[in-house]
Amino acid sequence: MGWGTFNAFEMKPLKLNYYLDEIIEENQEVFGDELAADWVITELRTALRRTRQAYPGIENRIGALEKCYFEIEQRLIEVLLEQQDENASELVSRLIPGERSLTPHFEFDVEKTLTLVSTSLVKQGAKMLRKVNSKTAFLSDRDADWYRGWFEEWRNLYLAAARRGEEIVVGATG
């Protein structure tokens, strides 16, 4: 929805209800009846408030690879291999999509998955990403500014999460 998980409940009530109704209708097997769905949403709202209180500013620690996942992944691997980082491909292939599913009991399609990047992998990723200069990594392509902007946002998420000892939840949407 563009609002992000932590800010979704700050939408205007009519707009929020429109989205929630749509989500509930599409996933009735998950939510059950209307009363059960209301309970789940109330619990989610409470959990998000608690999380925001426990981790101040978490709602602003986001990163996206908007329509450039593949290009950034490929270029990042190339740059790291140029720096003699033999683990580049394996590490990048776990940083971008996450390393384990948070929703294994739900059969979402690949465009609606939630995965987790552990604290240890976040730290490894941040260490590796510190070595990448986005100004030189994304020079030759005609869309370099586009890629650089998304890459820097995503990179900054990893650096911030590593400083705080946090995990990262990855949500793929289509």
Mind explaining what this structure looks like?
- This protein has 174 residues and is mainly alpha-helical.
- It contains 8 helices and 3 strands, in the order H-H-H-H-H-E-E-H-H-H-E.
- The protein has helices at 13-26, 28-31, 34-54, 69-82, 88-95, 119-129, 134-137, 144-164, and strands at residues 100-101, 114-117, 168-171.
- A 3-stranded antiparallel sheet has the order 1-2-3.
Key descriptive features of the protein:
174 residues, mainly alpha, three-stranded antiparallel sheet
Mean pLDDT: 85
The gross shape turns out to be: elongated
Order of helices and strands: HHHHHEEHHHE
Number of strands: 3
Distance linking N and C termini: 11 Å
Lay out the secondary structure:
Elements: H1 13-26, H2 28-31, H3 34-54, H4 69-82, H5 88-95, E1 100-101, E2 114-117, H6 119-129, H7 134-137, H8 144-164, E3 168-171
Antiparallel strand pairs: 1-2, 2-3
